[in-house]
Specification:
The chain is mainly beta. 13% of the residues lie in helices and 38% in strands. The protein contains four helices and 16 strands. The N and C termini lie far apart (64 Å).
Length: 254
């Protein structure tokens, strides 16, 4: 008769959110003589978005199948008996952007070989060291890269940033050499909400496109923004005073 074991690595599990913390949990269940089912959760307890999350750790168990995530890389840099170093990332799917908004949790499940289950070690979330099953320091907020100079003549095509599927800036740069873009369209969040937004959907203040803009700048390119458009409410129409309009423009500049 097969026995069922459930391993809960719960030492030091956080009971309250902290403004600058993340919680990366690990549990193992259905453990037998040859393997188990593992679950990793990543909870963003900060007030900022963690973009394009990537979780690295050393693990003494080969991962065989995985759900709600993917093994982005595996190498032999593990220390001691912790086995290989593994990097997990979000699933490459239309419904998954790989970002963790404040309070959002990602759950990754997998089957792995070996027994008994060992706790992952030497973890890092987006390069910041973490300890599994303990509140850990979060990756810092993403900061804008320094702007690049514009050439005297430039081809900067329009990209409607809220169309689906999202425009692949990296592919356009790699395949066509495009490095400069006009990002559209900045409008008010709504007729009675003068907050600057992308197409009325994403607040500019939340830095929604910042990872893409940073990648464009890292490749030597630059962006400008287009205000208005056929849909939505223009900032000048939604703002009641010149000072309010100036503040909305300043958010975009920042």
């Amino acid at each position: 008769m097969r026995q069922l074991f459930i391993f809960l690595f719960t030492a030091g599990i956080a009971t309250a959110a902290s403004a600058d913390k993340v919680f990366v949990g690990f549990t193992a269940a259905n453990a037998g003589k040859t393997g188990f089912t593992g679950r990793i959760t990543i909870t963003n307890q900060t007030s900022w978005t963690i973009y394009d999350w990537r979780l690295e750790f050393e693990f003494g168990h080969p991962i065989k199948k995985i759900w709600n995530g993917r093994v982005a890389s595996t190498n032999e840099n593990g220390k001691g008996n912790q086995g290989k170093r593994i990097m997990l990332r979000a699933s490459a799917a239309s419904w998954e952007d790989g970002d963790l908004s404040p309070g959002e949790k990602a759950t990754i499940e997998f089957t792995a070989e070996g027994a008994p289950p060992k706790l992952p070690a030497r973890g890092k979330l987006n390069g910041t060291p973490i300890i599994f099953n303990k509140a850990s320091n979060a990756p810092p907020p993403l900061a804008p890269r320094a702007a690049n100079r514009w050439p005297a003549q430039v081809f900067a095509p329009y990209v409607d940033t809220t169309l689906w599927p999202p425009f692949d800036f990296a592919a356009a740069t790699q395949k066509h050499g495009i490095k400069f873009y006009t990002l559209a369209f900045i409008v008010a969040k709504g007729p009675n909400d003068p907050s600057a937004s992308w197409g009325g959907y994403h607040l500019v203040s939340k830095r929604w496109l910042l990872p893409e803009i940073n990648a464009i700048r890292a490749a030597g390119g630059e962006v400008l923004v287009s205000f208005g458009g056929a849909a939505g409410t223009g900032l000048a129409a939604a703002c009641k005073t010149p000072a309010q309009l100036q503040a909305a423009y300043q958010v975009v500049i920042d």
